[in-house]
Write a structure and sequence with these properties.
Immunoglobulin-like, 4-stranded antiparallel sheet, mainly beta, 14-stranded antiparallel sheet, 28 strands
Length: 400
Amino acid sequence: FFTAPASSDDYTRLGADNPSQRAFSLSLEHRGSNFMSLGEIEPNNDFALDLVASYRQKLFGDINSNLQFRYRLARGRETDPYRLSLRLSRSFGNGLGVNLNLTHTQNQTGSDEQRVSLNFFRSFPQLGQSLQTSSNISSDGETTNQLTWNYTDSRTVGGVRTSLGATQNANSYDFTGRLSRTGYRFNFDLNHFYILPRNGQQTTRNITRFNFGTALVFAGGRFGWSRPIDNSFVLVVPHPGVSDQLIGINPSRDNFLARIDQLGPAVLPSVAPYLVSQVQIEAPDLPIGYDLGQSVFNILPTYSSGTLIQVGTDAKVFLRGVLKFSNGEPVSLLSGQITSLWDPDSKPLVLFTNRAGKFATEGLKPGHYQLRLFTENGEVLEFEIPEEAEGIYDIGTLVI
């Protein structure tokens, strides 16, 4: 590989002492004739130098201006191409705006072109919709008029995006429609083009394109169904105790980026490798007494790898009751430890009482337990949660 030097300089001045928001940037890049980027087999450098200068400023009446010039020094005998453009834009609030673009271009053959473009747009953020109309006129007499409507669902995953467009040019009337959806298990993109010739000699054309993508992943001995994988992925598998619950992964706007549902485990299909990523677990409709366990995981995946995470436990009881001593006095403002006598692998839970001896704790399941108070005498009692108990279970008064 051959390298080439590249240099750039940017100057920006913003802030309270710059009410017109003036900003200037300049960049200059040089590439040697044998320069190749990573992944290229042969060098392809038609230009030795690439100069870009840009200046923007707010004018009167809240009109924003942007003047840009680009010049490229060609190798060989070709003409050096350049482009000069001026953009004026104005926003009127409520999603309404207009912009005017003036462009002069010279290509490598030496041909010049001037182009004028006028655009009006109106957005409706609460509805997720936008409407745009534009007219373009070039120096060669070509005129194009376009009208476009777009709708984007507020949900990143699970929502739909659609658009309708109509274009008039010198040769035809073009009508387009698009419908796409990014789902938890698959993506699809449907496009249709209807082209109606204006000269009456060519035939009308209808073109329909449909793209569908899905993926089957495997990690840690478990399978998952997902939308297409970009690089590394995370497979989130539920414990059998919560497998029938809707569990969301990484909240995003009004939805989640992945979820556990009737179709199986959740899959995060776009996780950057060699970077620490956080996986958040939420179950907004989880019944009282059920336990998700750890709710935040930090992972560091390798390149094109899969990470398995298991969430949830078999706990399904929220226990409450009253603790009293044998003399009838409440066990007031004390704590203790609950240990399962049936499942030695389960983690002990800490219990606290109020002044009246009332207590409440979650993360339990049917079984036989021992309660030991954190006192000098370490009083102990045993109790049992019946097999049919689920959700809130009031055990009544326990005497220790």
